[in-house]
Amino acid sequence: MAVKGIIKKGEYYDSVTLMLVAREATKLDGVEDAALMIGTKENKSILESSGLLIEEFKGASESDLLIAVKAKDELLAGTAIKKVEELLKTKNLGSQESEEYMPKSLEGALEVLPDANMVIVSVAGKYAAREAMKALEHGLHVMIFSDNVPKDKAFEVKKYGREHGLLVMGPDCGTALINGAPLGFANVVNRGDIGIVSAAGTGLQEVSCIISNAGGGISQGIGTGGIDVKKDFQGMSFLTGLEALIDDSETKVITLVSKPPYPEVLEKIGEVLKKTDKPVVAAFLGADPELVKRIGAIPAKDLEHASLLAVSISKGISMKDFEKEIVRKDDELKELASQLARKLTGEQKYFRGLFQGGTLAYETQVLLKDILGDINSNAPLDPSLKLEDSWKSVGHTVVDLGEDEFTVGRPHPQIDFELRNKRILTEAKDPTVAIIYLDVVIGFGTNPTPAEELVPVVQKARETSNAIIIATVTGTDKDPQDKAKLISMLKAAGAVVFERNASATRLAGYILKNIGG
Amino acid sequence: MLANDLFKKELKVVNVGLLSFKESLDKVGVKTIQVDWKPPATEDAETLEALKKLLGNK
To answer: How far is A444 from chain B (nearest CA, A)?
Structure first.
C-alpha cells in the first residue's frame, strides 16, 4: 500500500466539490482511500486518523488544498493523483453550468437579475459577512448558510438587517422556506397557513416535515441561526421574522423553534407577541413551560409536539382529542420498548446517538435527560458533560457531527456521510452499546443518495453488533431522495425506523429504562 | 423591501457559494443566478505580503 499526496497552494474549491472529487477518486483503479481537504488543523487530524497524512502536509496552511491518495502501489497512487487534478479542472469550470454565464460579483449578478430579492451566502465563514452586507446594502434579504462567521461581523450584519426591516437568516442558518422555495437544506413541504421562525436549522426541517406529513402546510419558514437568540444578538433576526409572520395574511398559526432563548430575548419576543391574536406555539427545547406561557405562547414539549399542536390548531381539532392521541402513542412506544429490550444482553447498556442535525442532537439530550439522566456530548446541555474527545464516546453519548471539530473545511454531515459511517462501525465494535441511534435528514441540498451510502453501513454494524439500531428520517414523500425506499431499506437492514425524532428518542429512552439504564 | 413585502413577490435569488443550492432552486423553478465567487486575494496573508513586496510597500 502506498500513500501519496500533493499540496495545491491558493486554489479554491467549495467543500462539496472536494467531496465529490474525493468520491470519484476512490473509485479509480487500485485506490483504497482518497481525500481532498483544506489544510486546517482539524482536517490534518482527520487525514492522520485515516493514514493519509504525509509529512509535507504537516506544514500546510488553511489556504492550501491537500490531495491524498492511498493505493495499492506508488504507480497507481501517482496516476490517481493526476486524475484527481484533471477532475478538479473540469469541476472548477462548473461542468454542469458551463452554458450559463456566471458573474464574478453580486453587482454583476444584479445586472442579470435586477429584481433579485434574496441572496444566499455559503462561502467560507470569514468572508461571509462581507458578502451578506453587500446584499443588505442593495436592499436584499439574506440567508447566511456559512458558519464560523466572526461574532462582531455577524452582529453588524444582523443589526443592519434589523434597522432596515430586512431578513438576515443566519449566520449558520441551514434551512429556510420562503414563498414555498427550499433554501439551503430544506424539504418539499405542503404550503399552508403555518408560519415558522426557527433558530435551529434541522429544527425547521423536522417541524416543517412533521407538519406537512400530518396534513398541514407551511406559509413561510424563517431561519435565524442559533446565535440569534443568545444574549449578544438579542433576537434581532428572530424578531424581524416574527413580525413579518404576524403581518403576513397567509399565516394563521405561528410556530417558534429554538433552544431556550436568553431571558431578555424571551421578553422581547413576548413584547412582539402582544401585537397579535394569532395562536403561537413555541418549542423552546428544555425551557420552563410557565415562562413560555407568560409571554403568551403555547408551550410544546418537543418538535413533534409543536408540529402536531400547530396542525391541530390550524385544522380546528380540539386540544382534548389531541392530548389523548399523544398519550396513546406514548403507551405504544412503551410496549415496543419492552419487546425490544429483551433482545439485549446484560452487558449492553449504553445509548450512542450519532447526529447529522444539531437541533435533533439537542432535542434528544433534552428528552433523554428526563428518562435516563446525564448524557455526554460534544455539544452537551451542561458544560460538565462535554466529551473530552469528540471522537470517543463515553457512557450514554450524543455526538453532533455538525459541530466545528467535524466540519471545518469539509461538507456538512447531511451531505458527507463518511465520518458518521466510520463512527457507526466504531460504536458497533463496543460490546457495551445497547442502542445506536441515527438521524437521516433528507431534502434539497443534502446527500442525494442516503440509502446507498448509509444502509450498507447499518448492515455491517448489524453483522458485528447485537445493538438495536434506531433511525429517524426527517423528510417528505416529495423530497428528491426516495423517502419510502430509504425507510424500507433501513428496515430491511434491521433498523427500527421513525419519522419523528422525539418518538424515536423516547423509544430509546424507554428501552434503556427497561434494562435499568 | 420589507420582509413582509417579500412574501407577496416572486422569489428571485442570487447564490454566492455552494452550487447545489442553486441547482435545488432551479429544480423548483425559482429564478436564480450563481456568482462565480473566489476568496479575495488580499485576505490571504501570503499573497498580500507578495503584493506589498511587488509594490515596494514594506
So the answer is: 6
Chosen for mutation from A102, A162, A237 (greatest number of chain B CBs closer than 10 Å) is: A102
Of the partner residues A63, A141, A186, the one whose CB lies closest to the CB of residue B46: A63
Beta-carbon separation of A145 and B21 below 8 A:
yes
CB–CB contact B24 A110 (8 Å): no
CB contact under 8 A, A113 and B31: yes
Per-residue pLDDT reduced to its tens digit, A221-234: 999 999 999 999 99
In CATH terms, A327-514 corresponds, of 3.20.20.70, 2.170.150.20, 2.30.130.10, 3.40.50.261, to 3.40.50.261
Amino acid at A363: E
C-alpha cell at A401: 457531527
CB pairs < 8 Å spanning A and B: 161
Third-level CATH fold of A2-97: Gyrase A; domain 2 (3.30.1360)
C-alpha–C-alpha distance, residues A148 and A128, integer Å: 9
**For chain A, what are the domain ranges?**
2-97, 106-321, 327-514
ipTM above 0.90, yes or no: no
Asked if A102 lies within 8 A of B35 by C-beta distance, the reply is yes
Inter-chain CB proximity A118 and B11 less than 8 Å: yes
Query: DSSP string covering B14-57, please?
Result: EEES-HHHHHHHHHTT-EEEEE-----GGGSHHHHHHHHHHTT-
Q: What pLDDT, on a 0 to 100 scale, did the predictor assign at position B51?
A: 64
Residues in chain B: 58
Grid cell listed for B17: 457559494
Beta-strand pair A433-441/A64-71: unpaired
* Shortest distance, CA B57 to any CA of chain A (angstroms): 22
> What confidence tens digit (pLDDT) does each residue in A263-293 have?
999 999 999 999 999 999 999 999 999 999 9
Closest Cα partner for A139 from B1, B8, B31?
Answer: B1
Please state the domain extents for chain B. 3-54
Of A307, A312, A337, nearest to A324 by C-alpha is A312
Identify which of B11, B16, B34 has the shortest CB distance to residue A117.
B11
Nearest to A364 by CA among A286, A292, A308, A447: A286
Please provide the CATH number assigned to the domain covering A106-321. 3.40.50.261
pLDDT, one tens digit per residue, over A164-216 is 999 999 999 999 999 999 999 999 999 999 999 999 889 999 999 999 999 99
> With left for phi above 0 and alpha for psi between -120 and 50, is residue A87 left, alpha or beta?
alpha
